[in-house]
Task: inverse folding
C-alpha cells in the first residue's frame, strides 16, 4: 500500500496514513517524495507562490468541505479576534448554530475547538507551500533550470519571504511558542524533529530576518507590479516590519519604519470608506496589503465571508456601538444596524454582496491609518506625548471631515481634537479608543487587548470568562496527538 506524507497541519509534521479513503482522496497538504523532488518550472513556482496567498483569503472551503466544527470553512480571524473580543457577537439573533463559535465568545473552549484548529492548519499549510517554493527559488542554478529572469525570481522570493513571515506572525501572536519549520519535510524522521515548539523569541527573530530579505528583493514602488497590484509590495514588508517591532516592544524602530511608507505613496484617504469600497480597490492611497478577491475567477477567488453575513452571522456588540462618539461617521461605515449590514465586511453601503459566497470585495490586512496608530503608540512609549496626540488627532480629523455614509458631513463639534497632555495613561486611553473605532471589525481588537495586557480586565467587565490562560490559544489537540506528545500544550489547557 502506498503511503502519502501528510504535511498540512505542521507544514512538515507528518503522519503516514493507512486509511483507504485518505489514499483515494489525499488530504490537503499532501506532498509525496516524488513531488518534492520534481524539477521546478516557472509555472509551478508561480502557482505555488500564488496558492500561498490563498490561505489568507476569505474563500470558502480551501481546506475542507463545509467542515464547520473543524474551523475549516473559512479563515477564523473574525472568530478569534473579533467575536472573542468585546466588539462582535456571533449572530444578530442568539441561537445554537455553530456552538464552537459560542465557546470562543464565552471562553469555554478547549484544545479541540475548531477556531484555533483552523487557524493553525491554514497557517502551516501556507508555510509548507512557501518552504517548497523557496527551496527551488534559492537554488544557485534556478535561472538556468527554468529560464526565469532574475527580476521575476527576486519578485517571487520577496513575496514568499514576506508571506512566510506573515503566517508566522499569526502563529506566534496567537499560540506563543510554535514549531519553526523553514525547509520542506521529506522524511518521516524529519517530521518528528520539527514537531517541537521553538521559543517565541526565536520565531520573532525569524519573522524579522525574513522581512529584511524580502525588503531587499522588492522594487521601491507603491505596487510591486502595475498589472498585478495585489502582489506583496515593499510597503507591505515595511508595514509588517513596523508591526513586528511594535509587538516586540522595540519602540524606537517603529516611527522610522512607518515614515518610510509615505514616500512610497501611502497616505490617508480623504474618505474613510474608500479602503473598503469595492469600486475603489487599487485606486486609493491607504491600503498597504490586501487579498484581491474576484468574482467568477477560475480557480475561485471570491470573498466567501459575505455568505455567512447573509445567514445572520457577525453582529456588533452593544458595547462596540456605544464606543463611538456622537455623529462619528465611522460607525455607519462599519455597520448599519437597521438592515443588519456589516458594511466594512461587505465592501458596500447598500447590502450588496450580502449572502454572496463569491463576492468581489477585497480583504484588508494592513492600511496606513493602522500604521500611523502604531507610530503614535511607539512615540507615547518613548515619551513623545505631543507626537502621539498629533497622530491621534490626524486620524480623528480624517474621520470627522469624511463625507458620511448618508452623503452629508458630520456636524460642527464632532470628534474634537484631543488637547495637549503629558499624562501617559490619559493619552494611552485615547489611543486605545481610537484604535477600536478606527479599526473595528478588522481583526485587530483581540490582539490589541492581549498585547496591552488588559484583555482580562476588559473582557471580564464585558461579562466574559476570560482567564490568564486565554492570553494564548491552545495548541490543537490533534497536533499534539499526531506528534506522539512531542508537541506540548499551552498552560491551562
Result:
Amino acid at each position: 500500500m502506498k503511503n502519502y506524507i501528510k504535511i498540512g497541519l505542521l507544514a512538515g509534521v507528518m503522519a503516514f496514513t493507512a486509511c483507504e479513503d485518505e489514499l483515494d482522496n489525499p488530504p490537503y497538504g499532501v506532498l509525496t517524495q516524488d513531488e518534492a523532488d520534481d524539477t521546478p518550472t516557472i509555472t509551478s513556482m508561480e502557482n505555488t507562490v500564488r496558492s500561498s496567498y490563498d490561505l489568507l483569503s476569505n474563500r470558502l472551503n480551501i481546506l475542507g468541505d463545509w467542515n464547520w466544527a473543524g474551523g475549516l470553512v473559512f479563515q477564523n480571524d473574525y472568530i478569534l479576534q473579533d467575536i472573542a473580543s468585546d466588539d462582535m457577537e456571533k449572530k444578530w439573533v442568539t441561537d445554537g448554530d455553530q456552538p464552537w463559535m459560542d465557546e470562543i465568545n464565552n471562553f469555554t473552549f478547549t484544545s479541540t475547538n475548531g477556531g484555533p484548529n483552523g487557524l493553525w492548519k491554514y497557517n502551516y499549510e501556507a508555510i509548507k507551500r512557501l518552504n517548497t517554493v523557496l527551496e527551488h527559488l534559492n537554488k544557485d542554478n534556478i535561472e538556468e533550470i527554468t529560464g526565469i529572469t532574475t527580476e521575476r525570481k527576486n519578485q517571487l522570493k520577496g513575496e514568499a519571504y514576506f508571506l512566510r513571515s506573515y503566517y508566522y506572525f499569526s502563529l506566534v501572536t496567537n499560540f506563543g511558542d510554535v514549531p519553526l519549520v523553514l525547509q520542506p519535510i521529506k522524511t518521516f524522521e524529519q517530521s518528528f524533529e520539527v514537531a517541537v515548539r521553538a521559543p517565541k523569541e526565536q520565531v520573532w527573530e525569524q519573522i524579522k530576518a525574513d522581512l529584511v530579505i524580502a525588503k531587499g528583493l522588492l522594487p521601491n514602488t507603491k505596487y510591486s507590479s502595475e498589472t498585478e497590484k495585489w502582489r506583496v509590495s515593499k510597503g507591505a514588508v515595511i508595514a509588517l516590519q513596523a508591526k513586528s517591532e511594535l509587538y516586540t516592544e522595540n519602540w524606537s524602530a517603529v516611527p522610522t519604519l512607518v515614515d518610510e511608507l509615505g514616500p512610497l505613496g501611502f497616505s490617508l484617504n480623504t474618505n474613510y470608506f474608500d479602503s473598503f469600497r469595492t469600486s475603489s480597490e487599487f485606486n486609493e492611497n491607504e491600503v498597504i496589503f490586501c487579498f484581491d478577491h474576484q468574482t467568477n475567477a477560475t480557480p475561485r477567488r471570491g470573498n466567501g465571508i459575505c455568505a455567512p453575513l447573509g445567514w445572520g452571522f457577525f453582529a456588533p456588540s452593544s458595547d462596540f456601538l456605544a464606543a463611538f462618539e456622537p455623529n462619528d461617521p465611522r460607525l455607519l461605515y462599519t455597520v448599519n444596524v437597521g438592515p443588519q449590514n456589516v458594511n466594512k465586511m461587505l465592501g458596500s453601503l447598500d447590502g450588496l454582496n450580502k449572502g454572496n459566497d463569491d463576492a468581489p470585495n477585497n480583504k484588508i490586512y494592513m492600511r496606513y491609518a493602522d500604521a500611523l496608530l502604531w507610530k503614535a503608540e511607539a512615540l507615547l512609549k518613548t515619551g513623545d506625548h505631543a507626537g502621539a496626540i498629533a497622530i491621534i488627532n490626524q486620524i480623528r480629523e480624517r474621520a470627522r471631515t469624511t463625507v458620511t455614509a448618508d452623503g452629508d458631513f458630520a456636524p460642527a463639534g464632532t470628534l474634537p481634537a484631543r488637547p495637549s497632555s503629558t499624562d501617559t495613561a490619559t493619552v494611552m486611553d485615547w489611543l486605545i479608543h481610537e484604535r477600536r473605532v478606527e479599526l473595528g471589525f478588522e481583526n485587530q481588537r483581540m490582539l490589541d487587548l492581549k498585547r496591552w495586557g488588559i484583555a482580562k480586565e476588559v473582557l471580564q467587565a464585558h461579562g466574559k470568562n476570560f482567564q490568564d490562560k486565554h492570553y494564548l490559544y491552545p495548541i490543537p489537540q490533534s497536533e499534539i496527538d499526531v506528534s506522539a506528545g512531542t508537541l506540548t500544550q499551552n498552560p491551562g489547557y
Q: What stands out?
A: The two ends are 37 Å apart (CA to CA). The CA atoms of residues 367 and 427 lie 22 Å apart.
